[in-house]
């Protein structure tokens, strides 16, 4: 509930109040949100709530360094719950800090914005904010080093065993792929599961998403394209990772369910 209220407050500062209420309501009553919210022992709900609050604090340009540090702590706690998500959530937050800081320093000089992009992004102010954010993350992540050592035998282990979850466990997995795609990379399987879980299960939400994509073609909404691109890349990565595994945590493997 706190995550939804925070998200609504964040959206209301970017778009109209009616749009913010409509978008938050759609998210609140999405079947997947209701499913995980009703099962307190599942980690996905807590992870998503912490990440949402952290991202809204990260995008708020009016609250200063304390909010940035708090955002880092919340991201650290979210990664405490699901450490394997650091591969996409970490770069997404760092890019968000860079873009927010660039927007604050941009005084309308489009030539400087285009020609001196990197100098405008990676200046001292940006690096200082990244360090504040990372400091918060480290504070939130401290307990996981101990618990991972106790549970998995190594402080930085996430508990996933690619040999057990891969579709083809006999195929050798390169070292770099073990980091970014621990279950292997199987585009066809990922595509099929994306169709099942994103369209077959939730056709209304899929239709509204397609409508939202169409509205991004309006030049008046150009400022939303970069955040959408960031979200789309993260979404593609999650589909590629979790669509390429063959773990079944339900009674019947052939049953299609949320979890």
Textual characterization of the structure:
This protein has helices at residues 2-12, 17-28, 31-37, 43-58, 64-81, 86-105, 110-115, 117-121, 124-152, 162-165, 175-180, 187-200, 203-215, 225-242. It is mainly alpha-helical. The longest helix is centred in the middle third of the chain and has 29 residues, at 124-152. The radius of gyration is 20 Å and the shape is globular. Helix 4 (43-58) packs antiparallel against helix 5 (64-81).
Strand segment count = 0
Which ranges are low-confidence, i.e. pLDDT below 50, for 5 or more consecutive residues?
Answer: 107-115
Please summarize the sheet with the most strands: none
Query: Looking at the structure, what is the overall shape?
Result: globular
Secondary-structure-based class equals mainly alpha
Compute the separation of the termini in Å. Answer: 22 Å
The proportion of residues forming helix, as a percent range, comes to 55-70%
Radius of gyration: 20 Å
> Please, how many helices?
14
**How much is the average pLDDT?**
76
Q: What is the chain-wise order of helices and strands?
A: HHHHHHHHHHHHHH
Strand portion: under 5%
């Amino acid at each position: 509930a706190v995550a939804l209220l925070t998200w609504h407050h964040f959206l209301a500062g970017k778009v109209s109040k009616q749009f913010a209420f409509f978008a938050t309501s759609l998210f609140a009553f999405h079947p997947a949100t209701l499913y995980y919210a009703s099962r307190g022992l599942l980690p996905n709900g807590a992870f998503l709530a912490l990440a949402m609050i952290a991202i809204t604090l990260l995008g708020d340009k009016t609250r200063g360094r304390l909010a940035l540090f708090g955002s880092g702590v919340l991201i650290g706690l979210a990664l405490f719950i699901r450490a394997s998500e650091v591969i996409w959530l970490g770069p997404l937050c760092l890019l968000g800090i860079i873009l927010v800081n660039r927007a604050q320093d941009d005084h309308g000089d489009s030539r400087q914005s285009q020609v001196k992009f990197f100098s405008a992004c990676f200046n001292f102010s940006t690096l200082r904010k990244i360090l504040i954010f990372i400091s918060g993350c480290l504070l939130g992540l401290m307990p996981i080093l101990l618990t991972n050592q106790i549970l998995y035998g190594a402080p930085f282990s996430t508990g996933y065993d690619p040999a057990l979850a891969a579709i083809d466990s006999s195929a050798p997995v390169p070292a770099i792929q073990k980091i970014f795609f621990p279950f292997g990379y199987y585009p066809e399987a990922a595509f099929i599961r994306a169709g099942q879980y994103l369209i077959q299960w939730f056709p209304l939400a899929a239709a509204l998403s397609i409508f939202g994509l169409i509205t991004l073609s309006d030049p008046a909404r150009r400022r939303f394209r970069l955040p959408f691109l960031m979200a789309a890349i993260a979404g593609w990565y999650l589909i590629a990772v979790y669509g390429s595994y063959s773990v079944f945590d339900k009674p019947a493997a052939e049953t299609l369910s949320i979890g």
